[in-house]
Amino acid sequence: MPHVLEGLRVLDLTSGPVGGMATMVLADFGADVIKVEPPGGDRFRSLPASPLWLRGKRSIVLDLTTTAAIAQLHSLVASADVLVVSGPPSRAARWGVDADAAIALRPDLVHCSITGWGPRGALVDVPAYDGVVAARGGRMMAFERQLRRGGPVFAAVPVASHVTSHGAVHGIVAGLLARARHGGPQRVETSLLQGLLPFDLMELLVVELYERHGIVAPSVTSVGGDMPTLNYHPICTADGRWIQCGNLLEHLLMAFLDATDLLGEMLAEDRFTVAPGAWDADTVEAARDMILTRARQKTADEWMEIFRANGNVAAEPFLTTAEALHHPDVVANGDIVELDDPVHGKVRTIGPIAELTATPAVIGKPAPTVGEHTDEVLTSLDAQPTGRPVVATATATATATTTRRDRPLDGITIVEFATIIAAPLSTAMLADLGARVIRVEVTDGDPYRHLVAGGTTAAKTTAGKESICVDLKTAPGRRIARALALQADVLVHNYRPGVADRLGLGYDDLRAEHPALVWVSVAGYGRHSPSANRPATHPCAGAAMGGAGYQAAVALTVPCASLADIRETARQLMRANEANPDPNTSVVAASATLLALLARQRHGIGQAVYVNMLAANAYANADDALTYDSKPDRVAPDAELLGLGACYRLYPAADGWMFLAVTSDAEWQRFCDAVGRDDLAGEDRFATADARRVNNDELARQLEQVFVLRGANAWESILTGRRVAGVRADGPTPGPFFAHDADVLDNGFAPLCHHARFGDHRRWGPIVTINGGLDDYRAGVLAGEHTDALLTELGYDAAQIAELRAGNVVASEPIGWV
Questions:
Q1: pTM value?
Q2: Distance between CA atoms of residues 700 and 383, nearest Å
Q3: Tens digit of pLDDT for each residue in 194-208?
Q4: CA contacts within 13 A on the Cβ side of 368
């Protein structure tokens, strides 16, 4: 079988796991990835997860403080198809590999820049780490209600890093597609700040709508009741372990009550005979106590055996990410690989991001040692001094000095049969790269539209798309759906196994007429796993793959002697298990779809693609998604959820809160200079990173005394002015941050759009741009907003459309508020 990226060379000039994970994905799918390291190696090799994000690459050492090494680097750039750089833009410029300079060396280069804060703005040269961006971007304030102490709560799972890694993959692969079509260079830009965008699902729009009327919008921290819904309730079992339920829809909740033998008991009481959605507050609390009491009667393993046998209960136990590598569904689906690492021995880790059936990933090489391939690569380079040939295409008219500002996926049509968040958000990301996305909804619209009045929840997942509402239970509706599928380049769905086949949308059936189709399944579980037919929702993946438990910190281990204790811990666990597993899956699904499109372009192959939420969320927890004998445990947040250590945590200031990230000795020296504490810089206890770790508690006490001397705004100005990553952490939550932050607006990360119902508003911007991005980022759409236009395009006349509407085969949502 061919590999998607075989024959393509990627030059990795990044440092650390964000760029490292992006280029690892490219290596997994066949690219020759050459990692350029300084003498001594990438400083982040000391991270326990480095054997994962270094796998499959070749390593060379270049001392880029010398002109000779920079000349060698430039020769390498001339030989590459893709160059990936990270850090502040000034670093790439200093080495002569910023986009303009690198493209002059290789006229059809795909140049990818990964920054912290975007290519411009006041913070452009400030070191950016996941925690710093999460703090300033309001994500830590969004967790405020997890604890009862008030103030920001450390956001433990590095989700911005995960999204940014895949944003780079999206841009690189889409750039390769655009290069093949148009020729010429492709300038790809993404940032950690953009990596936060997928995790605000509604607040930005709510802020826009409220402020239009001069009203301050309610904070996301005030949304929802104090306790979890019964559908998404964590339960504590007889052995003290916790299981997360994810029974979003009513029929799934009823299946859960049936599996726990509570349904019969409840139906014997009049108050429970109405639908759960109609239960009053007292009835809900009575049901909650019945559920929590019943859960204590069996162990977690016993309950999971019952739930799996039932087949219609969405539930998973809370695990660590390392434990999740032995999850029976992850193992059975083939999502685990083992590599013989030259330093760490046998490494067990997560496999490819998805199953591409015709062009699968190839993961066989472990992480290289530092500089292992220096002689090999440089000798090969000497033998080819003019570099690799520039790609030539029939329409290649661009030059080294011009790039096209167009839609990189222009001409690609995607038909989406998917609901809620994970799959629909993935196709919205592809719409932001210029694809035409047609979503097919049931006649009353995606259930996600009905979670909040007016459909504000769906504005994000439908952005940039067209919508048609069709009843697929009818033969005419199925004919419409099939016609759309047969004219598409990509079909994306999140049906359970067998459903697509029954609707006439199965891969084998469609392939017979449309062999070039890329058919993408986004599911909770892998198709080869024993749970393939079970339902899954985001809290289940969050619990099973370690993210929720990591965010919960000590809550999972607190003894629960009473029902009140169980209720409070359940409250904390659900606040920790927020919606990130869905967007985590979305970015992976978009990467897999793009890789399959590139395989079709390069090798003429259509194929089926399978993405599952468990594997995707292992990637979001990549810092712990591997095991080997010498690997230390994942560093856990403290009980107060301030952070991971004295140099990476929240601190109270004289007014407000600060977040500090100091990860190197150079940053430590700049910090001490900025705060006027030369005595700390000179102390042996704190002079090196290792010494600071050993003396962590004392250092934290010293820094607490420093930060209370000034207000948070003053400290941010002082520290960022000295290129120290210290920012205010108790500013606005994500919605108002994206709506008003100067750097967000200056970089175009919250573009204006027009919605049929909501009018003009700012929307969530793209997670990656190519050649400056699109000229217009379109709003979300109403259900069936394009029903008539799409039917006309398929050849239906006005009379036929009227007949379909009269029979409720097709429909449209009214523009007015509902």
A1: 0.96
A2: 54
A3: 999 999 999 999 999
A4: 21
